[in-house]
Amino acid sequence: MSAENEIQEERNNEEQYRNWKQNIPFMYEICINHQNNWPSLTVCWLNELEIDQNDNEIHRLIVATQTNNQEQDYIKLLKVAIPKKLDEQLDNTLLNNIWKTQAVGKVQEELQIPVEVEINRVRQQPNNQFILAAQAGDGEVGIYDLSKQSKVFALKGQEKEGYGLSWNLTNSGQLLSASYDHNIYHWDSNTGQLIKQYNFHSAEVEDVCWHPQDPNIFISCSDDKTFAICDIRTNQGVTIKQEAHSQEVNCAQFNNFQSNIFATGSNDAQVKMFDMNKPEEDIHTFSNHEDAIYSLQWSPHQRNLLASGSVDTKIVVWDYYKIGNEIKAEDEKDGPSELLFYHGGHRSKVNDLSWNVNHKHLFASVEQEKNILQIWKIQQQLWEEDENDEYIQSLV
After folding, report:
1. Residue limits of the Histone-binding protein RBBP4-like N-terminal domain (predicted)?
2. Distance (Å, whole) CA 3 – CA 142
């Protein structure tokens, strides 16, 4: 791309961002823009909720600094107060603090844990609110205890860095990590021991995800363009390996409610949905992104909703109930019928996104270049549930 084209693209992006800011009151119930000192490669809502004396919800989340060795790196615990109910007197026209009361809507740092190397990904253990797993840039997988504000285990054996992390929902303390050394590692975080190492991908393993109901099944995806469905009770682990995309596959996640359904995101800018029982062909391809997809998460509240984050700066929320719905000719430019919403608040690559378990449709997302954390919730009328899912049921 020529310098002139780059300048024009930057101008177009800035114009789109200004338009987005102007439309915040019409699109969002909540929109908070928090400036960090450094970019974060990860964001993770913690599965906890408090109610303060003013009847506000107190939510906590994790980010981690990426200082490129210019300063000490940290895992940071942040908190934000959100009113249980919004009323008409609240000022939702300001981006940085949408409420008149300073204590509400303000992101505050509660603690920070120093780390030796910058952190690629952090995920909370589902059975213990204080325990975190973290993928570091040198390949170490660390186990951190928020109550002790320190690392309690260093899981050794992974030869290169990675991003994928997944806690087993049934077997407490069992953890999977995906590595750029082409391997998947199955750990017992209670003892710090490696249970097993899997090697069935021919390139970097980007992501891994335990099955939400069967503690013996997981999926993985790789730069070799494939996903794999794995059963840890077999000798080799892998039971199905399938080419899924035309380019590298960066993320793979099971649906929380329909556990035979999973989705993948790729450098080909597409999200695909598969049935684990019939994995040879995708059920549907979601197309609207313009660049590689690195973040993917199903809703913890509705089985039909999926969010994807991309290098193109957008986060798209998809509704598979709306696949095949007719759209008006004047609306075709806005994307396919299953595109429920796209969040245009970021101006660089979306590094990670997180869907809050305890507040319906509350998101957190982080980007690469602007040191921005955004906390946002789309207007309620967009979340009207469509129970007419005969189309998708006919496919799965």
Report:
1. 15-84
2. 42
Q: Is 10 helix (H, G, I), strand (E, B) or coil?
A: helix
With contact defined as beta carbons under 8 Å apart, do 218 and 257 qualify? no
Torsion angles phi and psi, residue 16, rounded to 5: -60, -40
How far, in Å, CA of 139 to CA of 117, rounded? 10
| Tokens 């996104």, located at residue | 353
Quote the strand ranges of 337-387, DSSP E. 339-343, 350-355, 362-367, 372-378
**Which string of DSSP letters, residue by residue, matches 12-25?**
HHHHHHHHHHHTHH
Residues 268 and 286: their CA atoms lie apart, in Å, by 11
**pLDDT tens digits for range 48-100:** 999 998 889 999 999 999 999 999 999 999 999 998 776 554 444 443 344 43
- Would you list the DSSP string of 153-220? EEE----S----EEE-SSSTTEEEEE-TTS-EEEEETTTTEEEEEE---SS-EEEEEE-SS-TTEEEE
DSSP count for the chain of H helices, then E strands: 3, 29
Residues in the chain: 396
**Domains of the chain: residue spans and CATH:** 1-114+352-380 (no CATH), 200-312+314-347 (2.130.10.10)
Residues in a beta bridge with 154: 142
Q: 117: exposed, middle or buried (C-beta count within 10 Å: 0-12, 13-18, 19+)?
A: middle
Q: Which of 186, 111, 120, 189 is nearest to 150 (CA)?
A: 111
Q: Write out pLDDT tens, residues 178-218.
A: 999 999 999 999 999 999 999 999 999 999 999 999 999 99
CA 123-125-128 angle, to 5 degrees, is 140
Place of tokens 């730069």: 223
DSSP conformational letter for 130? T
Do 218 and 232 touch, CB atoms closer than 8 A? Answer: yes
